[in-house]
Design a protein that fits this description.
This protein has about 525 residues and is of the alpha/beta class. It has three domains: about 5-40 and about 55-80 and about 225-305 and about 445-510, FAD/NAD(P)-binding domain, CATH 3.50.50.60; about 105-220, no CATH class; about 310-430, no CATH class. It is about 35% helix and about 20% strand. The chain contains 18 helices and 21 strands. It has helices at about 10-25, 60-70, 105-115, 115-140, 150-155, 160-165, 175-180, 185-190, 210-215, 225-240, 285, 295-300, 335-345, 390-410, 425-430, 450, 475-495, 515-519; strands at about 5-10, 25-30, 45, 50, 80-85, 85-90, 95-100, 220-225, 245, 250-255, 260-265, 270-275, 275-280, 310-320, 320, 330, 355-360, 375-380, 410-415, 420, 460-465. Helix 1 (about 10-25) packs parallel to helix 10 (about 225-240), helix 1 crosses helix 17 and helix 7 crosses helix 8 (about 185-190). The longest helix has 26 residues, at about 115-140. Residues about 145-150 and about 500-519 have low confidence and may be disordered. It holds the Pfam family Amino_oxidase.
Length: about 525
């Protein structure tokens, strides 16, 4: 009989684990409280338009190509993906903007034109350092199981490579090290923004995370239908191999028998027997007892002070004018440090940097005059959605601050534009017990990456997956967490002689981005 695996949550991590396990012959059931797959990768309807309400930047395409190949399929047969020529457009005032390009030589030229030859040289040095850090960390940590610091990581990297261990610069802040590359504070601010990809402050994040810039430089991709289309593709991949999905059905209780996980009790009282359970939920939900007292014993809580950032997110269908939008745009505040001090003080920034994803823009194409376009607009905010209720007055004040930042850079939104505003309260409701922290634990301090919840828990047969677990936040990281969960389940059940291996096309070999670049 095939091993039975129950998965709580149809986010990217859970969907990945479901497809890979089903392809190996497991009897997989996924239960999801929402009516659709994707978790954070979802869409909401605003003014009759479907607008992405979750992640919008898609990188590390090779991760997903490997997952689909391991299931005997081709990613390109499931979703329409194309490379973005412009990674992102950046602005500080209405006079000029700076584009980073898929072609690094074009980026270097743009930076030189923007800030001079010394800035271009700094960019070259920064690129080399970010690439080296990525090369050291990629397979041992990003694509491998969780390790502790420093000896286990040293062993995995290679004990003779002490220079590599020091080269990842874990004890220096990203902000400090970026200052060694860029004298122009605008460029320092631009590349410091990558810390917010994992919900953290560049003033507290280790310089190790400069590797995110290298990941993005390898390729930003546009998916027809947005990230929810990728979630749908992963679900269909699992269904091809027999995985079952139960939507609008929540898990209430994790059961154990004889010292290990034995199944799930659903909110409707139904029981699903399982030899293994994967929780594709924020570990804080487990720690808070959202899935019963045994689940609470399985993982530790990182506490309120270790939470990542939350956000104020406007999902808008609006007419715009002025600034020439690309798909991804960042409008920077004049005082970056104040932004994060405001957040540490428990309030959204009074003068914020603003990210705008213009969902209908590609390659700099204009939207016809007078036509509304779909926008996702993000301002960082504290994860206090469980301790502070945002009033209508506060929401209006945040909206005014966001609009002032856009206007300072030349972008105008129509008055009274149709929108839905998601606050940390909304994210706490969507991600219970997190305060609305979108990225799990903040990556502050040298040890943060090693303290993130790993795949295995204290209860045998219970595993974690998702962007709040190892290896980290983001769509490809969530997928890698699902792959790690699959590997742990297979290994542990095989050791109990319960798992029935099934031959499958493609195997589980996954080429890294480095291998692709070298090959």
């Amino acid at each position: 009989m095939a091993s039975r695996v129950a998965i709580i949550g149809a986010g990217i991590g859970g969907l990945t684990a479901a497809a890979l396990l089903a392809a190996r012959g497991a009897d997989v059931t996924v239960v999801e409280k929402a009516a659709h797959p994707g978790g954070k990768a979802r869409q909401l309807i605003v003014d009759g338009a479907s607008i992405d309400a979750g992640p919008t930047v898609f990188t590390l395409r090779d991760v997903f190509e490997g997952i689909f190949a391991a299931c005997g399929a081709d990613l390109a047969d499931f979703v329409d993906i194309r490379r973005a020529d412009v990674i992102a457009r950046h602005a500080w005032d209405p006079e000029r903007h700076l584009d980073l390009h898929a072609d690094p030589e074009l980026s270097e030229q743009a930076i030189g034109d923007f800030a001079g030859a010394s800035a271009a040289a700094g960019f070259r040095a920064f690129r080399r350092e970010a690439a080296r850090i990525h090369g050291i960390i990629d397979r041992p940590m990003m694509r491998g199981s969780k390790v502790s610091w420093p000896l286990p990581l040293m062993w995995r990297i290679g004990l003779w490579r002490m220079g590599d261990l020091l080269a990842i610069r874990p004890y220096e802040s990203m902000w400090k090290v970026l200052g060694q590359h860029f004298a122009d504070q605008r460029l320092r601010q631009l590349f410091a923004r990558y810390s917010t990809y994992c919900g953290s402050s560049p003033f507290e994040t280790p310089a190790t995370l400069m590797l995110i810039a290298h990941v993005e430089a390898q390729g930003v991709w546009l998916i027809e239908g947005g990230m929810s289309a990728l979630a749908g593709a992963l679900m269909r991949l699992g269904q091809m191999h027999g995985a079952k999905f139960r939507f609008s059905t929540g898990a209430a209780l994790i059961e154990t028998a004889q010292g290990r996980t034995s199944g799930l009790i659903l909110c409707n009282g139904e029981r699903i027997a399982a030899d293994a359970v994967i929780a594709n939920a924020d570990p804080e939900a487990l720690a808070a007892g959202r899935f019963g007292p045994l689940g609470a014993m399985a993982v530790p809580s990182h506490g309120v002070r270790k939470r990542s950032l939350s956000a104020m997110v406007w999902l808008a269908n609006a007419r715009t004018s002025g600034f020439p939008l690309q798909r991804h745009n960042v409008f920077f505040s004049p005082d970056y440090s104040r932004e994060f001090s405001d957040i540490r003080g428990g309030a959204p920034p009074c003068d914020p940097s603003v990210y705008v994803c213009a969902l209908d823009r590609e390659g700099g194409a204009d939207v016809p005059p007078g036509q509304r376009e779909r926008l996702q607009i993000i301002v960082n905010a504290p994860a206090n959605g469980d301790s502070h209720t945002y009033t209508e007055e506060e929401k209006a004040r945040c909206t005014q601050a966001m609009r002032r930042s856009l206007q300072r850079c030349g972008l105008e939104l129509e008055e009274d534009f149709p929108h839905t505003l998601l606050t940390p309260n909304a994210f706490e409701n969507f991600l219970p017990s997190t305060g609305g922290a979108i990225y799990g634990r903040a990556s502050h301090g040298w040890a943060a990456s090693f303290l993130r919840q790993g795949t295995r828990t204290r209860i045998p047969g219970l595993y974690c997956a998702g962007g709040s677990t190892h290896p980290g936040a983001g769509v490809p990281m969530a997928a890698l967490s699902g792959q790690l969960a699959m590997q742990a389940v297979v290994q542990d059940l095989a050791s109990m002689r319960k798992f029935r291996p099934v031959a499958m096309a493609g195997g589980m070999s996954m080429r890294s981005a480095n291998a692709d670049a070298m090959g």
